[in-house]
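User: Structure with zinc ion, tokens only please.
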Amino acid sequence: MKCRHCQAPLNQPFVDLGSAPPSNAYLSEPDLHRPETHYPLRVLVCSECHLVQTEDYVTEDTVFDADYAYFSSTSRGWLAHAKAYCERMTERFDLGSESFVIEVASNDGYLLRNFVERGIPCLGIEPTASTASAAREVGVETLEAFFGTELAEKLSRERGKADLIAGNNVFAHVPDINDFTAGLAAALKPEGVITLEFPHVMRLVEFCQFDTIYHEHFSYLSLLTVERIFEKAGLRVFDVEELPTHGGSLRVYGCRQAAGHARTSAVETVLAEEHRRGMDTDGYYEGFQVRADGIKDGLLRFLLKAKQEGKSVAGYGAAAKGNTLLNYAGVRPDLLPFVCDAAAAKIGKFMPGSRIPILDPAVLETWRPDYLLILPWNIAEEVRTQNAHLTEQGTRFVIAVPELTIL
Ligand SMILES: [Zn+2]
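Assistant:
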């Protein structure tokens, strides 16, 4: 296999998580009587450009299909994040009724509905039918498609170019990152701005967030690598912010090479830190496997001990992260009988691979577990606050990453 960005041969392993079905391939009851396709989940790092990337097995339409069950609006914290983004971008880049905003992978309209409320023309691009239709219901015009150069050129002919293109948690999810980035350039006005948010691979390594690795997540990005990818597409990075989302993300601001946006000192600060840690060397990416194995073993020890002691454990949050962790650790319903999730699209389904049933969080009122394992650790505080009353009834909250912790 060759590097998705620079085409250099890929020889250096980063981590091997065995094999698993796509993380968002939730099963319905009849599916339990059929086999499931598992794909290897191996991640490599390019020794040339240091793009960390999954080995190619899964195509885009396998993982983002019509039944895609991830709805951004089910997380309250994420909704607040989207609202704050809209306010800041509107002010900083002086957006108004003459502007045009595009969001790539606009999901259920969680972000663009804030622009709609302000009377700023916008368009969402979203390949999954279920979320696109939810977006239309909240008044967000949505084009059901995958974004790339071809679509960007068609859009700029038919709809004009954009003042702002937002991409939250999509840049890491595209298999052809060069074509996607060239598309951003093609859809952008000469002085337009692109903002991309993605989990920072520096935090993934630092906190051993190996459960953020899944097939839909093709790239694990540093600013060093993003600069190279932008440059190839005629773009440049002019600002960057470090965000707490998804365990530590970057929001990168990009524009055309010739645009007037001045480069801020924040760009140099992040680049210097990445360089200081050696992210431009192969050595930085070694040793991750051993650390991931340690976390997996810690989770298994905890579940086995709870079982021996006759303590009950339930899971919370049927997110992709949980699927990676449970499948890698080989956890099945004998150790974790169910996972609760508030998303209507997931309730009554089963986790891919582990086949653990997903139930309405209301069951926690009658079936009070001794331990509630919060799988999406990035929203652990939100889950704890929402379920604070369970603590009074004796339930203790647990997270597995970066190490097994009883909260
Ligand atoms: Zn490369």
